[in-house]
Amino acid sequence: MALVLHHYEGSLFSEKIRLMLGYYGLPWESVEISPIMPRPALMPLTGGYRRTPVLQDGADIFCDTHAISEYLDVLCPEKALAPPTLAHAARSLAERADTHLFQVVVALCFQPAAVAPMMAALGPEMAEKFAADRAELSGGRGSIASLSPSAAEAALQATLVPLEGQLAHGPFLLGDAPTIADFSVYHCLWLLARNPVVSSLLAPFEAVGAWMARLAAFGHGGWVARSADEALALGREAEPQALPAAWGGAASVEAGGPALGSAVSVTPLDYGCIPVTGTLAYATDQLCGVDREDPQAGRIRVHFPRVGFALKAEG
After folding, report:
1. Which end of the chain is more exposed for a tag (fewer CB within 10 A), N or C?
2. Is this structure's pTM higher than 0.70?
3. CATH number for the domain including 167?
């Protein structure tokens, strides 16, 4: 069954996965979703999880790019982005990029001067809806980023200066082949490079620019468009797959944690903190899966990372 990516063009985390699909050489189907809620054909699949992107393989729904990348490594072990010899280093650097560096570039790209061209292109009504949607996503704080523009620029320099020095001595961050760390740093800088107000911050860093070009050359691979309703039907007509042997079976890893088959919730810890409830199908050190029954989607399994998400017993 074909992989289906639910995404929208301007999403930096979506660009991370699009580029990874190009690197892996996997064919995929594209469902273009709205940048803002509502998403009536996607919510039945995710159980309410609303961050972008989401990867679907039949009745298996992978939320967050960490969970998506772990699954893609299972499908293409020969090109794994978290290979055993580098798994901890690659995942740790990827997590820092997806949290700290993400906050930095959002603070830069969503400061008033930088966000104005995007809002003007959206038009007054859509711009108002977009701002309200992001305020809701960030828990009413008004912005996902908490850094001032000056602090964000200083933090960016603190990342780019050593990155430039390192990339002068090798093609990728952790050696001769890319890892998940490369794609995680790249997608943050991709957002910066697309914004005409702040893209000049990257200009002095030639080795970083050459590295970004190497990653961009992987492209997005071969894909075809699919409608949201077709993707929903795919989930309804399929059944969750057996767990990959590489994930160590269906054992719960922590003593005293929720029992397999028990009612649980999984909730992001930083933003978009909407719990997804269901029955615990499995839990490993990296991922967990929740089985759900939905009137529109049927029986589905929603997969989440352990890092950055709270898995809790319900009832």
Report:
1. C
2. yes
3. 1.20.1050.10
